[in-house]
Amino acid sequence: MRFAVIGTGFIFRTHLQAINKIEGKIVDAVNEANGKDAWREMVKNTEADCIVILAPNDLHFEMAKFSAENGKIVLCEKPLTIKSENVKVLMSYPDIFTVCQLRYHPFTKELRSKINPNEKYQIETDISVYREENYWKTWKGQKERSGGILFNLGIHYFDLLLYLFGEPSRILTKYVDEKKGEGEIEGKNFFCKWRINATEPRETQRRVFRINGKDYNFSSKENLAYENLHFYVYKDLLEKKGITPKEALKSIELIEKIYEAFKK
């Protein structure tokens, strides 16, 4: 499969490694240095089969829609969009997929095989990571561009929660700001206390799901990109499988409700 990439920042290397591993080929790539609208010309003119979107979050919707309208397969880094109304628009296009690589983690596969819908589960989610000061000086520190900390970091874990346990029936947000948040989510067979914190010291950072007292540490590294799970995303993509807009909508709507609950 041939790929054209929009964006060559931090996450680009992870995608490059995954593309090489599936014996794919990057035939075009652009970034902001090529000009604000260079990506449009690339999408229209490239011979690539698939457009990979690694741009700031607020640009994902426009880029995914335009690429699909030009007949391309689309793989967009998380979040697919930062507005649920835009996800619903993308649902009308074929072959659009997003990246929520924790679904491919060995722990996820183990848990999916063990969880019983007739049992009750007490869940504690503690996502405490280190982010250096320069991180906040980029678009990732601007809520209007990133969607906020819950979209930029939390979406992996909210997607995982829904993927494992299903839809929520009650949402309580204790607080949420630009660097951290805490709350509760309750569903038919689960009660989850969640915490997202991007101010943790590097030495003690963690990504833990505690389910009925048992810890599942999904990563102790500085970024999930280092877990090499993108390969499985691309492996599915070869068969035009993956996380569709319909699937992505669930966690995006949940995050919107979490923010809205705090406003109330």
| Count of all domains | 2
- Rounded mean pLDDT is 93
Structural class: alpha/beta
The total strand number stands at 11
Unreliable spans? none
Number of helices: 10
N-to-C terminal Cα separation, in Å? 48 Å
CATH architecture of the largest domain: 2-Layer Sandwich
* CATH topology (level 3) name of the largest domain: Dihydrodipicolinate Reductase, domain 2
**Main sheet: strand order:** 7-8-9-6-10-11
- What's the helical proportion of residues? 25-40%
Kindly provide the radius of gyration, computed on alpha-carbon positions and rounded to a whole number of angstroms: 18 Å
- Strand content is 25-35%
What are the secondary-structure elements, in order, as H or E?
Answer: EHEHEHEHEHEHHHEEEEEHH
CATH class of the largest domain: Alpha Beta
Domain Gfo/Idh/MocA-like oxidoreductase C-terminal: 122-175
Protein name: Gfo/Idh/MocA family oxidoreductase
GO molecular function: nucleotide binding
Domain Gfo/Idh/MocA-like oxidoreductase N-terminal: 1-89
